[in-house]
Amino acid sequence: MFIRSLFLGALAGAVLGIGAASAQQKETLLESQESLYNNIYVYQRSPYVIMTFGHNKQLYTESVFDTGDDRVLPVPYTQFMTAALMYAGKVNSILEIGSGGGRIAWYLHRSLPNARVTSIELDPAVLALSRKYFGIRDEQNFDLEARDGRVFLSQSKDKYDIILIDAYRGPFVPFHLMTREFYQIVKDHLADGGVVAQNVDPNTMLFDSAVKTIGAVLPQIEFYKTSDGSDDNIVTVAYDGAERKADDLATVASERDKAYDLRYSLASMLAERKRVDINNTQAIDANAKVLTDDFAPVDALKSIEQHNRKMP
């Protein structure tokens, strides 16, 4: 789910980068719902369908769907989430935590139909709207499930070659998806050679702590900085074991660009790669703290349902 605070009037020009004239196109509210977790709005601004969540009188864009082509990823950071494809030792199973309108998961399913793609979304209403308006449907090797991501992983025995984390509610990442204990659960569900890609907002005070926390469990960290026309996003790729060298990544990127039906070239993305040393105080604040659960995991799991609900 895309994290960016924008008023809808600026959405097309700022988020989609389709120009000031397009921002004046007629916008139609297709449906709104007040779910247990979100105030959800679905708009149409041809050719796009846009899902937003309301928070403090602002609208946060969660997903953008090009109705003319279901393999277009209009928001740049979503394209770079697929950079994980060149890091994974193999690509047979992919898990996404934070589905939103399901655009990244669906793109990967359409591009790699033989890989098993599982997308987890907390809010059942969001999943229902993604099926209704965003071209998402149940197919072989593509599964949608309404669950909390941490609970799902804690109760699963499956392992994945790629785990994508893009779980936001408005401007916030749920606390239980930011801790060292959570990333340890994620690591435990990675197959050999597995990799994690996560959308991390660089404009939050917790950015340095978030990166340091990831690095406490998955020491190899690389950044892909993207721009949506109004601000920057950081896609963080993290993994265990030896560093993937640039030449090796280039070889894999070229091979998988040819092997898979990819709209967005992995080889082109590689040019944006930046290695991160979490011990380098010029890159990461030395005072940043590793985020941890402050109570027993069983209590954490019991509290998730209550925590996930909307604030009054």
From TrEMBL:
PROSITE patterns xrefs: PABS_2
Protein origin, superkingdom: Bacteria
Catalytic site: D166 (proton acceptor)
Keyword Transferase set for record: yes
Entry-linked InterPro entries: PABS, SAM-dependent_MTases_sf
Keywords (A to Z) from UniProt: Polyamine biosynthesis, Signal, Transferase
Entry annotated with the keyword Transcription: no
Domain PABS: 1-255
Designated name of the protein: Fused MFS/spermidine synthase
